[in-house]
Amino acid sequence: MILNLSSSDEDAFQPKLLNPQMLAFVGDTVVDLIVRERLCRQANPPRNPHIAAARIVSAKAQAVAMERMLPHLTEEENTFYRRGKNAKPKSVPHGASKTEYRIATGLETLFGWLYFTNQMQRIAELAVFLTELDDGAIQQTDCIAY
Questions:
Q1: Are 59 and 96 contacting, i.e. CB atoms less than 8 angstroms apart?
Q2: Contact partners, residue 103, CB within 8 Å, separation at least 6
Q3: Active-site residue, selected from the candidate residues 28, 134, 135, 142
Q4: Annotated catalytic residue 9
Q5: CA-to-CA distance for 25 and 20, rounded, in angstroms?
């Protein structure tokens, strides 16, 4: 699903020691790629995939996905989620509350850590919560009718 382009000094790299914002930085891209791939694979693709993806990866939608995902996390995953959630944001986007943004940052931190620890199967398992499109994240009017 996602490329792992590791460097030659892989033995020295310790994802557990990364700052939560750095994990979220990578996790944001992992989440975005998961959602974009899912949109491309839909039988009835959206007319504007960028807008559809933006709705799903918004802080508000990620907060909803995280609330559904939370009971399914292991203790270690929950630790990384909390580390990201508790990191102090420098600013909050206009379309989200501070709480939603912090929850979304926790989700992205979790996905960044899973990526860096090469837990691709677990990413795929948790991606289901991101790509459940039946919650109205993508409106029928956004889709091309065949």
A1: yes
A2: 59, 62, 63, 66, 67, 85
A3: 28
A4: no
A5: 8
- What CATH fold (topology level) applies to the domain 18-39+47-140? Ribonuclease iii, N-terminal Endonuclease Domain; Chain A (1.10.1520)
Average pLDDT, the chain: 84
- How many H-runs (helices) and E-runs (strands) does the chain carry? 6, 0
Note the pLDDT tens digit of each residue in 87-119. 887 777 788 899 999 999 999 999 999 999 999
Please name the amino acid found at residue 17: L
What residues contact 101, with CB distance under 8 A and at least 6 apart? Answer: 59, 63, 89, 92, 93
- Residue 45 tokens read as 């693709």
Given a cut of 60, whether residue 38 has pLDDT beyond it is yes
Q: Which two tokens stand for residue 114?
A: 């899973």
The candidate with the shortest Cα–Cα distance to 66, out of 37, 27, 39, is 27
Q: For residues 73, 6, 53 and 92, what is the CA-based torsion angle, rounded to 10 degrees?
A: 70
CA distances from 80 to 74, 113, 124 (A): 10, 7, 17
* Alpha-carbon gap, residue 134 to 110, rounded angstroms: 23
